[in-house]
Specification:
DNase_NucA_NucB; signal; 9 strands; binds 2-acetamido-2-deoxy-beta-D-glucopyranose; alpha+beta; 4-stranded antiparallel β-sheet
Length: about 220
């Protein structure tokens, strides 16, 4: 039987989820990072709602395959920086994060987007936020096969055998007031939960853009 306490917690969680700020990554600027994020979310079932925990970042990196020195250092400039999802600056990061060698330029772009998002939306440590993607068409892991083409790694050793699971989340399309679109991933266990995004805003190019409809 559901206790009053459980119901209260559920109501509180719903309110929290509804008010979470959303950051949008433009995948035309950070395609490798989007690929890693999509792989983590669609293929490994990592969450799309994250909790900022910047003090944890260093320990998180040390706990996964981005631990320094990592396999990316010394690579050519198209893959010389280790990216991880969930982000190192979140409570969900650390052991089990999906990692990929990306161009350091993409890693600094994404870091810039995330830190200005944190500032603009007053996302403090302990606050939750959601992630969305734009311009992701054509990226394999964002809409196609989860078969690891060799660029995704969770643990350093032994070689990680990827699950090829595509039914954990479904893709929802946000229509934005700017006329553009963004993608969000909705857990199939919570179908319809992203309908709440209608009339909320997402952070895109350092602006708040209203969501007109969720398809
Ligand atoms: C999609 O990419 C184009 C070209 O890079 C860019 O101008 C546009 O702002 C991007 N749209 C979104 C919604 O990110
Ligand atoms: C969104 O805003 C419009 C215009 O203010 C309003 O008519 C509509 O009912 C709102 N929809 C939701 C789901 O809040």
């Amino acid at each position: 039987m559901l206790s009053l306490r459980t119901l209260l917690f559920a109501a509180l969680a719903a309110v929290t989820a509804a008010s979470a700020a959303t950051v949008t990554f433009d995948c035309s600027r950070v395609p490798n990072i989007c690929s890693n994020d999509c792989y983590a979310i669609r293929c490994l079932g990592k969450p799309t709602t994250l909790t900022r925990n910047s003090p944890q970042a260093e320990d998180n990196r040390d706990a996964n395959a981005c631990r320094s020195p990592n396999r990316c250092s010394g690579n050519p400039s198209d893959s010389n920086s280790c990216d991880e999802y969930p982000f190192a600056s979140t409570s969900q990061g650390g052991a089990g994060a999906s990692t990929r060698c990306v161009p350091s330029q993409e890693n600094s772009r994404q870091g810039g987007t995330l830190s200005s998002f944190y500032t603009r939306n007053s996302v403090a440590n302990g606050d939750s936020y959601s992630v969305a993607f734009s311009n992701a068409s054509g990226l394999q892991y964002c809409s196609g096969s989860c078969t690891n083409s060799g660029n995704q790694l969770v643990r350093r050793l032994p070689a990680f055998a990827a699950r090829q699971e595509t039914s954990i989340v479904q893709t929802r399309k946000l229509l934005l007031a700017s006329g553009e679109e963004a993608l969000m991933f909705e857990p199939v266990s919570a179908r319809g939960s992203l309908n709440r995004m209608v009339n909320q805003t997402v952070d895109l190019r350092e602006e708040a853009v209203r969501v007109v409809a969720v398809l």
